From TrEMBL:
Residues in the signal sequence: 1-26
Keyword Signal belongs to the record: yes
UniProt source species: Parazoarcus communis
Lineage summary: Bacteria, Pseudomonadati, Pseudomonadota, Betaproteobacteria, Rhodocyclales
Keywords carried by this UniProt record: Signal
Pfam families (UniProt xref): DUF2282
InterPro entries linked to this entry: DUF2282_membr
Residues covered by region (Disordered): 81-103
Record-given protein name: DUF2282 domain-containing protein
Polar residues compositional bias, start-end: 82-91
Amino acid sequence: MSQSTTARYATAAAMALALSAALSIAATPAAAQSMDKEKCFGVSLKGKNDCAAGPGTTCAGTSRIDYQGNAWSLVPKGTCDKTASPTSPTGFGQLEAFKEKKA
């Protein structure tokens, strides 16, 4: 093998290792974050949801109304049922999607 071929392999290997390390580091906070957070339906404002905004929408930032019952946001575990939601049957966020009542 020539030196230039060896150098290319070494560079490619170093880049692959760096990319692998970066992806591992990036994945760790998400896993840790999800352990102390929970999905809370009906607490996000229009266009501010984290995901699941019902038919005709795609995901994050696509809720069409404030406190949409099928749109959720991540909140600290144990706080969902204490977070105000004027459209919820109980007046607070829910752990499951719900049909909104008039606010």
